[in-house]
Design a protein that fits this description.
Blueprint lengths: L12 H9 L12 E2 L2 H10 L9 E5 L5 H7 L4 E6 L5 H8 L5 E5 L16 E5 L5 H11 L5 E7 H8 L9 H9 E9 L4 E2 L6 E8 L6 H11 L6 H7 L5 H10 L13 H12 L1
Parallel strand pairs: 2-3, 2-5, 3-4, 5-6
Antiparallel strand pairs: 1-8, 6-9, 7-9
Amino acid sequence: MVMVAAVAGTPTQPTLRRMREFGIRPDRELGQNFLVDSNILGVIGRAAAPALDGSEVVLEIGGGLGVLSEYLAARAAHLHVIELDARLREALQDAVARFENVTLHWGDAMRLDLAALRPAPDAVVANLPYGIAASSLLRTIEELPEVTLWVAMVQREVGERLAASPGSGEYGASSAIAQLACEVRVIRAIPRTVFHPVPNVDSVLVRMQRSGEAPPPALRALVRGAFAHRRKTLPASLELAGICSRGRARAALRQLGLAEDVRAERLSPTQFRHLAEALER
């Protein structure tokens, strides 16, 4: 995994102006860290270039003060923006007022019916709130089958976990589930200084390209059960999670030519798929 150092720029005037004009103070409980560096917009744009040619429908989760929303609206056929914090309504509406191709959705991105969005999104581009970064990405993989590209700023640990390879300390359930449907890469480090307030964690830009269908519910449950007790062997963890008996898991592992005492982090996403198929048989 190669990470390129990012360079901080100057604060964008729209962010500072809207904070003053609308009396906005970031809510740390909501994980709000507003983008205040115009250079990062170009970085995001280049990473999401295939989806920003004027023909794609883009979904942004966490519109905030609308700095990224403005940038995306000028380059997408249609932009859906989801924002939970009603305090930001006037500021976000001000940011996209001149665009006729923007639909604002007020509510929790983890509860809204994403499949009902029309026109249906082809891409997800966002500065994701830290608290829902991984879960929202996994949810969009599952519920938005027409999305083929994701570009998101997330906490570094989340990004590295999503892109982790089998056998590494970061590899886990979210890694396997994401990689069952996508090619995942951490493409750039993002300095803390591009956000206000400056967060206590580092961020990265993650790019995911769909390579297949989202794993079905049974496969997702198997993966989560496998990692539920990381210090246990895979058969023990699956039994403790209520997925299947140890004996059944061991028999399936033997069919795949894998050791009966293997741990979950040693299985690749493809091997998890084969394990699920073996257990079904």
